[in-house]
Amino acid sequence: MTDSSTSPYNGRWVARVRGKIIAQGETAEQAMYASQQSRPKERPEIIFMLSLPPLIKKIMDILPADQEIYLVGGAVRDLLLSRVSPDFDFAIPANGIPLARKVANALGADFIPLDDERDTGRVIFTEENGSRTFLDFAVYRGADLTEDLRARDFTMNAIAFNLRDETLIDPIEGGKDVRAKIIRACSPASLSDDPVRILRAIRQAAAFDFRIDKDTRELMKQSASKLARISPERLRDEVFKILKGPKPNVCMRALEMLGVFPYLMPELSAMKGVEQSEPHAYDVWTHTLAVLDHLDGIISALRVGYDAEKTNDMFTGLLGLRLGRYREQIAKHFETSLNVDRSQRSLLFFAALYHDVCKPETKTIDESGRIRFFDHEIKGADVAAERLRSFNVSNDEIERAQRIIKNHMRIHAFAARLENDKQTPSRKAIYRFFRDSGAAGVDLVLFALADLRATRAHSLTIETWTIYLDVARILLENYFERPEEIISPPRFLDGNILMKELGITPSPLVGQLLESIRENQAAGKIENLEQALAFARGELAK
Predict the structure, then answer these.
(1) Which of 115, 266, 278, 494 is deepest in the core (most CB within 10 A)?
(2) Which among 26, 28, 136 is positioned nearest to 92, based on CA atoms?
(3) Is 397 within 8 Å of 351 (Cβ atoms)?
(4) Which residues lie below 8 Å from residue 382, measured CB to CB, with a gap of 6+?
(5) Are 155 and 164 in contact (CB under 8 A)?
(6) How far apart are CA 324 and CA 316, in angstroms?
(7) How does strand 160-162 pair with strand 70-72?
(8) Which of 281, 277, 283, 319 is closest to 301 using CA atoms?
(9) How many Å from the N-terminal Cα to the C-terminal Cα in the chain?
(10) What is the pTM (predicted TM-score) of this model?
(11) pLDDT tens-digit readout, 201-243
């Protein structure tokens, strides 16, 4: 197996004489030809170079020396592209589950019998930093390895690497497509056999900056209706992977053009072509795609280590100047996920995708001809929740998405008040904002900036952008730097104490008084128990 010292040759065929590399090429034939040109009298060894991670080498040490085993699929593709993969698939002739259990025991890792019928076992190896690597051991899907590879989704994923003799097995020239950056179906039946591959092709095209072969695109269109037979969990996983990855706006546009939405997220189709009044520059669907694009850019510009000098965009430059101090806190926010299998980022992008989903049904035109969408955010939150329930996500995730969509207009109101009346958000308004949004308040700040850029587009002025950044800074400053003072002030009393001191019985009034006390604490008007009780007595007397 190759190590880091041979990394310049990773993914290439080399000619080696007495342990020294004398020539290289994209194919074995090219490497042989190049070696003959430089050393015509030598008989070189032609091998394929692949730099494998240490974990793979550990696995090889665990297995018997005569165990036939191949690294297959996306793991080989990623190694050819010099990418780090968290998933490794191994193909073996037999005993997938027993072999996986043996590896898990030796590594001290978790083991799951993934598919008894296909004799597939999964090993989950967790590093000290909490990152996980998934190792799947499966028997051939077919009579032999070649038949297994030909039955896969795309040629770039139909490549195997023999871990014993370090040779590449590539029956349908997937390596050639990897070099050409093309996604091509392995066979005419690839998409109809498993329609989820439609979503996977879109995701991987964005992830690797590949283009999808024309004939494959046609197969994707023809198979779109078959998505209706796929389990909601598989659809959900692909949707969230798309939203977690690069170019989510491009991916969603591609899915819409391929006719996928009626069988995946049908409520999104109605947004296309729905006009909006100024200052909106686009129809509802185009605006939604623009929000995804700007949100991706804003999160990227606020990541730890971002080089602000790389941007020529004044808006992005100002973003970094005003909010760059919170890079680490924002990174920590996105690292805290509500579900181990789905990221907080992907949930935010799902909410962004659905934030205007009910504009078509709430559209009205007033006497002046202005288009309005009353309560679209309230109804949109419910529609998004229904879709998430159909995808079988957790209640915590549904609640977070609802909070984002339901409250996505509030920061626009803060900015309008600052722009028109020169009033910054009050302490009480900040408290109420985070009371209603919770941790989603951070998502809402980033979303509002993306929503603004997608709304105004080229008509957005630096003055308006600066006002929004001022509001964003005020909200983040209070959330990250003054949580106990304004966001979640300490409770001076509970309902029992309040009822005892005021001589009242349990009723909704108790909760109302407690919340009024908290609001006035956040506003700086109540600083101790005595003041809290005095305030409550005064409210009761009214």
Answers:
(1) 115
(2) 136
(3) no
(4) 402
(5) no
(6) 11
(7) antiparallel
(8) 319
(9) 81
(10) 0.88
(11) 999 999 999 999 999 999 999 999 999 999 999 999 999 999 9
Q: Residue 252 is encoded by which pair of tokens?
A: 């969603």
Query: Half-sphere exposure of residue 249, counting CA atoms within 13 Å on the CB side?
Result: 16
Q: Which residues of the chain have pLDDT under 70?
A: 1-7
| CA dist., res. 538 & res. 313, Å (int) | 54
Residue given tokens 């007033």 in the structure block: 366
Q: Which neighbouring-strand residues pair with 139?
A: 92
Tokens of 411: 């920061």
Q: What is the CA radius of gyration of the chain?
A: 29
Angstrom distance (rounded) from CA 81 to CA 407: 42
Q: In this predicted structure, what is the pLDDT of residue 1?
A: 45
Torsion of CA 485, 491, 492, 494, to 10 degrees: 160
> What does residue 120 show for φ and ψ, rounded to 5 degrees?
-120, 125
Residue with tokens 């999808």: 212
Write the burial class of residue 86 (CB in 10 Å: 0-12 exposed, 13-18 middle, 19+ buried): exposed
How confident is the model over 437-478, as pLDDT tens digits? 999 999 999 999 999 999 999 999 999 999 999 999 999 999
Q: Which CATH code for domain 191-264?
A: 1.10.110.30
What does the pLDDT read at residue 2?
Answer: 46
Residue 375 C-beta-side C-alpha neighbours within 13 Å: 6
Alpha-carbon span 216 to 220, nearest angstrom: 6
Residue 216 CB partners (closer than 8 Å, separation 6+):
154, 183, 184, 185, 191, 201
Residue 362 and residue 375 in contact, taking contact as beta carbons nearer than 8 Å: yes
Query: Which residue carries 């915590």 as its tokens?
Result: 396
Sheet strands (E) in 184-285: 211-212
What residues does each domain of the chain span? 4-49, 54-180, 191-264, 275-487, 495-541
The distance of Cα 62 from the centroid of its chain, to the nearest Å, equals 34
Beta-bridge partner residues of 112: 122
Q: What's the CA gap between 144 and 81, in Å, rounded?
A: 26
What are residue 47's DSSP bridge partners? 14
pLDDT of residue 5: 38
The three-state secondary structure class of 364 is strand
Question: What distances in angstroms separate CA 469 from CA 324, 351, 390, 424, 472, one per listed residue?
Answer: 11, 21, 36, 12, 5
Q: Residue 314 is encoded by which pair of tokens?
A: 């004044």
Helix (H) or strand (E) holding 359: helix 359-362
Q: Classify residue 28 by burial, with Cβ atoms within 10 Å: 0-12, 13-18, 19+.
A: middle
- Give the pair of three-digit tokens for residue 100: 């996986």
Q: Are 127 and 116 in contact (CB under 8 A)?
A: no
DSSP string, 28-83: HHHHHHHHHHH-TT--PEEEEE-B--HHHHHHHHHS-TT---EEETHHHHHHHTT-
Fold of 54-180: Beta Polymerase; domain 2 (3.30.460)
Question: Residue 97 has what pLDDT?
Answer: 95
